[in-house]
Amino acid sequence: MTPPTPRIVSLLASGTEIVDALGLDGYLVGISHECDHPPHLLDRPRVSRPRFDPRGLSSGEIDAAVRRAMTEYGSVYEIDEPVLEDLDPDIIITQAVCEVCAVPTGGVREVLGARGIEAEIVSLDAHTIEDILASVAQVARAAGNAETSRSATVALRGRLDAVRDVVRGAERPRVLGIEWLDPPFAPGHWVPEMIDLAGGRNLIGEAGRPSREVRWDELEGLDPDALLIMPCGYGLEGARADADAHAERLRRVAPRAIAEGRAWVVDASSYFNRSGPRFVTGVEILGGLLHPDLLPAPASEHASVWATRR
Questions:
Q1: Structure confidence at residue 117 (pLDDT)
Q2: What is the pTM of this model?
Q3: How far apart are CA 160 and CA 152, in angstroms?
């Protein structure tokens, strides 16, 4: 049985944000190397690290490094085992969605077995919006605070419903989202649903399925009404720099959207890639971009128009 005040280690950024949304901050004793929100929880010990330093690498170089790490180690990340053992957690939050995005569940089980650590693994396996909301309840139950999830999820659903209600009946622009640029990836999991909720019509990528690699020539000819540049794990400035590096290809894919000022870079790391509560802010951001006559424009640190430099 989970103790009344369990010691929680979160090995993924969305898990840390869920802990915060549930008001369980006092239980959190360790976080992952990727955790960057909320600020008041970033003093916890870091329990994981990447097998390579992505700083200064292009998206193509990161892709190559990820593939090498998967081939050589079977994982992009490693756990700081002595730190984890010292923290003596009762609960470890991890994920089973993507081996590239965060420490996978299998790797955590191996470390626990090797070190003799007895902890409950809470593996979040969100592929849809409903899955994300269910993850909030899953963490609350594991911490012995199931009742705390209701108010959190009701508030999140209320914000989603507000966007849905405002854009209902509006013309739905054809939206092309790109989740990685070298090679290009079509969005999957919950992102197509986010586009739909925000009043758009997703052109490529399937809700509830993994993001998938595509070819640039598959994207040419789609001529979307709107282009969303949302590279996985990138903040706004990183997304803009990567878009600039692939400007010629993007011009061929979405010439009309770019010319009409309906091509945007977004802070994908914070609001689109994570299966945590801030995806709702992502829906609100998209709503403001796609339907500026109906919803407030997003803050400049969340999204901005992208234009090619000729």
A1: 82
A2: 0.90
A3: 13
